[in-house]
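Take a look at the protein record below with the fold in mind.
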Amino acid sequence: MSQSSEPRRLFFPLDLGAFDLHGHELREIVGTAVVFGIIAYLSMAFTPSDGVAIVSPSNGILLAALLFVRRPSSRTAIIAFSMIADVIANATTHHTLLTSIGLSLIDGLEIIIAFSILKSRERLPFQFKGIPSLLSFSVAVFAASAAAAILAGTVHSFSQKAVDAHSLFSLFAAHLLGFFTVTPALIRFLGRSKTIHPTPSSYERFGLLGLLVFLPVIMIVTSQSPFGFVILPILVAVAYRLGPKDTSTAVLLLSGTVLICSALGYDPSANIAPTSLLSGPLILQLRILTTIFTVMLLAETIASQARLRAQLSAELARRSKLNCHLKSQEETLTLQKAELERAHNRLREAIDILPEGMVILDADNRYVAWNRRYAEIYSQTADLLSVGGNFILENAHHPEARRIDDASLADKSLRASSDPREQFLDGRYYLVEEKRTSEGGLISLQIDITDIKKRESSAVYMARHDALTSLPNRHVLTERMHAATTCEHRGEGMALLLLDLDNFKTVNDTLGHAAGDELLQAVADRLRNALRESDTVARLGGDEFAVLVKVSQPETAGATAARVLNVLKNPVRIGGKDVVCSASIGIAVTPDHSSEAIELFRLADLALYAAKETGRGTYRIFEPELDIKFKAKAQLETEVREAILGKQFEIHYQLITSLSTLKPIGAEALVRWSHPRQGSASAADFIMIAEEIGLISELGAEILRRACLEAVTWPDEMSVSVNVTATELEADNFIDTVKCALADSRLAADRLIIEVTESTVMKDVERSARVLRNIRELGVEVAMDDFGTGYSSLGSLAKVPFQRIKIDRSFVRDLAASPEARAILATIVDLAKTLGMATTAEGIETAEQLSIVKNYGCTSVQGYLFHRPQPAEQVRALLWNPCDTEQNAA
């Protein structure tokens, strides 16, 4: 049964309401009542001849139960069931029913009195905690036992049985002993009170408690009289060594031993001589009671002292810990103070070596700290600067550098930080940054930004000028063009000259980029010297320059361009060599050509492009035809792009005939385009455009794939030739493109011929030779197309693994009338034979040309004399019907 804390107030334990009990509570209550009844019966059944037991422990059990339970209904149930058990016990010991009921009511009233007094003096759940609680318990049980004795005498008198004073006093003592021996022991055991007494050994506990059982038994059985002189020292030892809890146990054991001996027929008071006032059993009860109370009081005193010692030890330990903590805090404060002093010294040293000036003021504008740089900036001396001294306005020494006005210094509500501002002192710029402290003081930094200012100025200049030539850049030119276009409303015109150096790349490639930079600087100097100060000369990037001049008519711009070209044609001495670099100029004029700066720039660029096409070293003034031509080209580029992406191109094939058999041995794939506006167009009309728009690789891969697929349908001895541009050859994936075309079509590699022009090879001979060797390793034949039109034919033949030479039609066309052409043909054929190469003559259109190339030893021919380029279906039919080709050749 659990306990809970209850307030200290008067409480009557009987609750006449219905018993609200749970099953387990009811079982415990009934068990308590049964134990109470059994103990009551035993204590009454085995009593001395006078009918009063030495100890009556039953009421002590009942009081302990009431003090232990929590609910009033449970207390009521305990009293009710215990009274029933008491009636049964009294009736069993030969009392009349009326007497039994009366004695049971007396026992119940005794318990209620004791419980009520304890409830009024102590807080429930009741525990023995020192002498005050023991005294409260003593008062309660004394009053209850006295009341019970008086009421018992009254009940016996009503039963016409005389009761003497000795019996009533003995009854009082027996009940009092029952309370003192049973209740404290049960409360201590059931309450699990915390003990602070030193834990004795098991041998010591069981030894002392065993003596309290053994010695009284010996003394009672042997009728020895010095009972108290033997028992008291043992009880004192128990109280001192084992504590209050074991003392209560010892008292319980002693009373139980006396009670059991009485029940067995031994009289513990046999050898005690009675007096006129006290009988022998009563004297024994008083001795036991005095011993028990003394020992219990001694045990509580010892326990109280132990608790005081424990509290004192805890307090001493706490104060010791506090002293250690205070000592540690003191040491920490000492260390912190030393660290603060070191930090202060470091701070002074740190701010003293700062490159910026620094000053700290308090809320009253007095000096707190400053560094050496601050004193240097404002020309202050140690005599003028002192901690606590009044702040001296910098403008007192530098009127042009007023830093903080009087109003700002007087205003204590100045915001936490002010915007940085610049000062100019003694030819240097300083940035002043200030921040108000939480106490109202001021921290100010003076940062030297002179170099930053110079860099900013330099950055602004560099953002508007070319780093190499120091000329204005495109941004400045655009600004001045916009400004100039507004002046045309006042009758002033403007001419924009775009200038591009001719063959500048050659100078870079042959003399190096340093020489190229020197040439650009020389050109910039000549342009500045050749023009007026009001004119603008700008470098746009690379070898491109621009000149903006005021003109009254376009012819004036032409004269300016001619003067510029005349200045630039003179050689420039670079690295001990004379370098001549002409220029091409495109001109556009406002308002004749356009009044918009961006459009004027575009038109001048078109004129520049036209000047380069006409031979370089000249100038060209914009004409509307140039724009029309440009737009037509742009439209053509769009159409070519759409045609390539939409696969609108067709492939025609021109047969290649063997001169030994006059039978076709293959055909060359020639791409054709059905232009939506101009009709059929040859490759010469759009291949260059495809290269410019970056789609030549896609177009070439498609032609190669379709040609291989078509060649698979021809007889096995027929080959197909495909032309490859320089852009395709330079692509990293060209080898993979050839491999994919062969794999997709399943065409034998030796039936494919890749034709490249000499000019294609000469763009990068080493790379071209490496790529073509890889092509040869696939089994594909490599042929040089249009041989003789380049400028390094012999060198290319020696480096590149060609297997066939195709002689350009320009040599074949004049064979009949030109001995020189025939001599060149003979040389080419002999060279090819020497190198083990086959030769194909292109452009054979007459029988005479056929006869000449055959006589000179060419191995095959190609031209209109045999077949014109035809669609794939017609060529396929001709290859499978060789008779038609022989008749055509005849």
